[in-house]
Design a protein that fits this description.
54 residues, mainly alpha
Length: 54
């Protein structure tokens, strides 16, 4: 389980830092679950059923 302290710390990060952290974590997951996500690929982030615009 994730601690409340960690959640509070993560909420304090900038948006860019949160996306970077997500990228790192997803990359680690991709290495563990090779059938789900391929490393070194780009994947869209979808919020409320719509892709985020750049």
């Amino acid at each position: 389980m994730v601690s409340s302290e960690l959640i509070l710390t993560l909420r304090g990060l900038s948006c860019a830092d949160k996306f970077y952290l997500m990228q790192v974590l997803l990359s680690e997951l991709a290495q563990q679950e090779t059938d789900l996500i391929k490393p070194n690929q780009s994947y869209p982030i979808i919020l409320h059923g719509r892709p985020m615009m750049r």
